[in-house]
What we know:
Distance between the termini: 22 Å
Largest sheet: 6 strands, mixed
CATH architecture: 2-Layer Sandwich
CATH class: Alpha Beta
Helix content: 10-25%
Number of helices: 2
Number of strands: 6
Structural class: alpha+beta
Order of helices and strands: EEEEHEEH
CATH superfamily: YggU-like
Shape: globular
Number of domains: 1
Amino acid sequence: MIRQTATGVELDVRVIPRAKETRIVGEREGALLVRVAAPPVEDAANNRLVDYFARLTDRPRSAIRIVSGSRERRKRLAIDGLSVDSVRKLIGGPHPR
Length: 97
């Protein structure tokens, strides 16, 4: 689910669009399950997902990108400047809305 890379980490995410609020709700099939308060049209859900992880990790939005699955529910996110351990702590604690 979370892998160290040369610049930070990559994590597998499964997105459920059109949720009431954006938040991490668990894990499914080896991916972090995230409900996103945006529809899957015109990149709204992708943008909301990147914004959410920017706030969660306290990283600039430019440090987070979708490296695969931009048109799918299952995506791979790259987050620069973090370690696997720091991401595990962040996703295990309280999450911003």
